[in-house]
Design brief:
Length: 59
């Protein structure tokens, strides 16, 4: 009897934790993507700015 109860309670806890874990991961992915995307955009913009400055200020 106790084993059956533990199985059901354990499965429920795992399901609840699994749902929250997936939800938290789903929330974290856009944040990490934003940080990485922002860094890549910043580096790219910096390179483009330096190139434009060198190109247009020579004359």
């Amino acid at each position: 009897m106790i084993k059956a109860i533990n199985k059901k309670v354990g499965a429920r806890l795992l399901t609840k934790f699994g749902e929250k874990g997936v939800i938290n991961l789903g929330k974290a992915v856009p944040v990490l993507g934003g940080i990485i995307g922002g860094a890549v955009d910043g580096i790219g913009t910096n390179i483009i700015g330096k190139t434009a400055k060198n190109t247009f200020t020579q004359y």
